[in-house]
Amino acid sequence: MAILASFLFAMVFALLSSKVRGWFTGVFASDGEFLNKYAPYSYILLALILIVPIFCVLAFLQSSKPVEPENPLARYKLDDVVED
Question: Whole-model pTM?
Fold first, then answer.
């Protein structure tokens, strides 16, 4: 935990530098261009992430339930036994 605190303390002073702020601005500007370029693909991926689970749930609900096999010992069951 002390390493994380010291790293965050050092980052505060690094972010005060104008060169570092300029670098961060350039990085985030290029990320914006990247997002605009590939936005349709992300929407398609988001649609797949939302639609596939819904389709799976509907397919599960529409599937027929398996028939349980007949108990082979059921014909030997004694119904006339009186318990005290």
Answer: 0.38
